[in-house]
Specification:
- The protein has 389 residues and is of the alpha/beta class.
């Protein structure tokens, strides 16, 4: 709505993808005179949308519902035969009778068919089981894309021996593996991934990854062979020159200082990088120094110095208590509307870019808008943007 506010040439319609009648969706678009669609967001709904708005699905629905002959009499054998004949041609059986069990659904189905109902669509997620057509473009905020960008950027910063510390959650593992694969693709080197738990086990995982536990074992053996007392200091392994940390803000706040504690005072500081998953806007001005020095990728909208200041002021006024997750969706929605007029140009000239609130967007050969994010770092109890590229 914020992106639409100053545009009086367009009319917006909102459809809830959780309650929408998928089988009659194309005809509903025709009734509303829709010429562009943004969404859906959930992967499962993206697949449904593509399936039920395809030309094949539209033709099948027109045939099955016999739009020119009036309502079906579901108690009439011939109408059942028409339905059954059409359903038998489907890869997976569908209960079409239950799909037209309301007057509004039937009215939507029985709209006259138009010659061309294919509508350009900006999908907000990548489909799982269906293929895109030339009418589909995708804006995705997959966390794996951040990891790939980080690996590409950091591999150009002369780091040779990184290690990935990742929480064991499903999303965190996807991010960690995306970083590892991209690093290997660019450098040819396989890097180590250490998955950590919470609590005491987390400490053990980190000590093991830095080989601090082995150092302590060697010290204990050495002391046992001497009769006199000596002063010792455990040392971490020296072949690590960078750490990529994957975890939530809460997990990062626990792990980051523990990494520092386990770095020997004789060793150089090991820089720690992360994705936006580790960043919370509520920690930006914290007096707590736990996150000091942490550098991470982030969308411009959540880096104060890079925000559209006028839009940020409006957003703060309307939604003062919005959390980080909803702020990301806000930025995605804002960019989506701005992209409607730009996507046709980007399709003609793929080198064109859009500098949005979700990042710098560029259309690739698969009709997916890839994002390049900015970098922020915790410095003097606040987050500042830095140049890394």
């Amino acid at each position: 709505m914020a992106s639409f506010a100053n545009d009086e040439t367009k009319k917006l319609h909102f459809l809830d993808s959780n309650t929408v009648n998928w089988y009659g969706l194309s005809n509903e678009f025709s009734t509303l005179k829709v010429d562009y669609v943004i969404g859906p967001l959930l992967k499962s709904n993206v697949d449904k949308y593509i399936t039920h708005t395809s030309a094949q699905a539209q033709s099948r629905n027109d045939y099955m519902l016999n739009a020119n002959s009036g309502l079906f009499d579901l108690n009439h054998n011939s109408d059942h035969e028409v339905l059954n004949a059409a359903i038998s041609g489907l890869e997976q059986p569908v209960d079409y009778i239950s799909a037209i069990d309301s007057p509004s659904a039937i009215e939507s189905y029985l709209q006259p068919a138009s010659n061309s109902r294919a509508i350009s669509t900006l999908l907000l997620n990548i489909p799982t089981n269906t293929s895109l057509t030339d009418r589909h473009t995708v804006l995705s905020m997959r966390p794996e894309d951040e990891a790939k960008q980080a690996a590409a950027t950091l591999s150009r910063q002369y780091y040779q021996h990184p290690i990935v510390l990742s929480q064991k959650g499903i999303v965190s593992k996807r991010i960690a593996q995306a970083f590892v694969k991209q690093w290997q693709r660019i450098t040819g080197n396989v890097i180590e991934v250490v998955y950590y738990d919470t609590g005491a086990q987390m400490q053990a995982n980190i000590k093991a990854s830095l080989s601090v536990d082995k150092s302590k074992t060697r010290i204990a053996k050495f002391k046992s062979r001497l009769n006199q007392s000596i002063k010792t200091q455990a040392r971490n392994r020296r072949d690590i020159d960078m750490i990529y940390l994957v975890g939530t803000p809460e997990q990062t706040r626990l792990v980051k200082p523990y990494i520092e504690v386990n770095i020997s005072p004789f060793a150089e500081v090991i820089p720690v990088f992360a994705s936006s998953r580790s960043h919370s806007i509520h920690s930006d001005y914290s007096s707590n120094s736990d996150l000091r020095g942490l550098t991470f990728t982030e969308i411009p909208w959540l880096l104060t110095s890079e925000q559209n200041s006028e839009l940020a002021a409006l957003s703060q006024e309307l939604w003062p208590k919005r959390n980080g997750g909803l702020s990301r969706l806000f930025a995605m929605g804002y960019d989506s509307y701005q992209l409607i007029s730009k996507i046709p140009l980007m399709q003609q000239a793929p080198y064109l870019q859009h500098w949005g609130q979700t990042g710098t967007l560029k259309l690739n050969e698969n009709s997916i808008l890839t994002r390049s994010l900015l970098w922020g770092t915790y410095k003097r109890n606040k987050v500042v943007s830095i140049a890394m590229e």
